[in-house]
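// run 5 | inverse folding | seed 20
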């Protein structure tokens, strides 16, 4: 498994993998610990096989390693995950690089994102910005609230069908609509441009 970890913005760690399989298999447990729609998984101690069985039982198949191309979670989730899980598999051990390389200030909020393709990077960065910046989060939430109810309901239904839990709906809406990964073509270009402009402004501020 080839994985490169780097601090791409203050308190934002990027783990870049050379394949979707190694990315997804590394992040699967911690991502589902963070935001799984299944109550026996989210926030609980569980094994890889517990999750695989739950996914297959509820969705009729297990396609996790080909379904997801990007991952993200807050530092607080990593801390809870390392304390909660009884067994850490060899791939999950790679997440301890945060301790080893001291890439972040462990006592301050930080965020971890993972990708294998550059096309997913901005989407995952949008999640990091949303978590770490209160002003960015407030602005994005304001734009989300301006989406007509009929369109907002369609977006939430799509997210639910994709397997997202409603606790992260707003976060996912701003991440999808502020980057090129936009499946919601019924949202007006004016609103989409507001999302994109806010995202690009945040990138510019951090790159100064």
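// decoded
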């Amino acid at each position: 498994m080839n994985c490169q970890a780097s601090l791409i913005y203050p308190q934002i760690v990027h783990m870049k993998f050379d394949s979707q399989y190694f990315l997804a298999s590394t992040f699967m447990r911690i991502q589902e610990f963070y935001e799984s729609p299944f109550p026996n998984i989210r926030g609980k101690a569980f094994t890889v096989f517990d999750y695989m069985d739950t996914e297959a039982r509820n969705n009729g198949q297990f396609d996790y390693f080909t379904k997801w191309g990007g991952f993200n979670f807050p530092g607080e989730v990593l801390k809870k995950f390392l304390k909660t899980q009884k067994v850490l598999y060899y791939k999950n051990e790679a997440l301890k690089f945060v301790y080893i390389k001291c890439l972040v200030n462990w006592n301050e909020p930080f965020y971890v994102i993972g990708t294998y393709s550059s096309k997913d990077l901005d989407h995952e960065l949008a999640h990091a910005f949303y978590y770490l910046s209160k002003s960015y989060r407030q602005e994005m939430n304001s734009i989300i609230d301006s989406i007509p109810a009929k369109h907002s309901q369609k977006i939430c239904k799509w997210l639910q069908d994709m397997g997202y839990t409603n606790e992260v709906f707003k976060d996912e809406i701003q991440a999808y609509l502020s980057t090129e990964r936009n499946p919601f073509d019924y949202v007006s270009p004016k609103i989409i441009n507001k999302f994109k402009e806010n995202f690009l402004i945040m990138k510019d501020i951090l790159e100064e």
